[in-house]
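Hi support team,

I submitted a single chain yesterday and got back a structure, but I'm not sure I'm reading the token output correctly. Could someone confirm the output below corresponds to the sequence I sent? I've pasted both exactly as they appear in my results page.

Thanks,
R.
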Amino acid sequence: MRDFIRFIITLAVIAGIVYGGYLFVVHTIYTHTYVAIDEDASEDDYFILEIRSGMRASDVVDILYEEELIRHQIIAGLLVRFRNWGAIQAGEYRVYAGLSLEEMFTMFREGDAHEEIPVVYVIVPEGALLTWIAHLFGQELEMDSDHFLELWSDVDFLTELIAEYWFLTDEILNPDLYYPLEGYIYPIRHEIPVSAVEAGDMHAITRAALDMTERRLSGIRGQIQNSDMTFHEILAFAAIIEAETQEPEDMPGVVGVFQNRLDNPYNFGRHLETDATIQYLLEERVTQVLYVHLEIDSPFNTYRNPGLPPGPINSPSENAIAAVLNPMDHGHYFFITDMFGCYIEEGSDAEYSAPGRKIFAVTYSEHRDNLARYLQPSYNAGHSVCNPNVQFGN
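Hi R., thanks for writing in. Yes, this is the structure output for that exact sequence:
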């Protein structure tokens, strides 16, 4: 009888816990969905939320949390996802603390009470240099690209931007940098307000571009801030990876190679020895970096200087940044890019392979064998000796 009573009591306790948990979950969902963070807030105390084409619902949640308009970033993001509220419309919205999450996302989805923003699009490709980005902005906005480069090097303006954007620091004022904002204009389709273009307001145009960078980084801001590296260092590292490979699946492995070189002073003296930084110093890209190029006196020459270069050498992709934050752990110190399509998987009956594959090596001897086998014959011939479809360029 006592055992039966204990069983009933235990069952009642478990039921109470389950029911209490159920009430807690229901209350949490109700509170975060239907109750405004400040029900007494005035409609006149509003925030203009600008949703641009291509923005994700998670980006909007991040902004609402930063502006203290919702209670909890993660819970709100889950609710938006599970309730299928992601189909938001671009435009400007007036939001204030008296609106619930449901009311805000109903407005975003239905496009209520918003003004569409006329924009001009500027597409920045992954791995673009800032000089090319200035050219694209000048071309698409019918403005002088040289003026963009001048503004993007103006210390007073840069100081203003550092105060406004969490991802910009005094590191961009390093005199060793060729262009302070190199790498910081995100490779994506930028939407520049027509009003700023018509006014010739390059300051506003620049801020619109950096706003896009901020939105794209918002989802990994916590990971960036928890990293042992500053964001400037992450960006510098990612730009090298972007220059070394455009294949997302190869990027973590390439990061692992360079991380090994940075961590092991006995093998490389913490020298990255990457041709990508040498190419950055040349007026025109070359097919093969020569020994004479390695003697260039520059802080960006990673054959002569240990550690990361002073800053990014291009605008790296989201995949390259993610790879730096999540490198592959392995024992390789070398790799080559099979640019001529000479590597064929063992057991494959393919006549030749597509170029671009990364071939890794642990020792320098192994690395030299890979160079001699997969690259040097084509260099000597002046064309790919393996794949007739590969163009040999300068």
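A quick pointer for reading it: The first helix runs from residue 2 to 34. Let us know if anything else looks off.

Best,
Support desk
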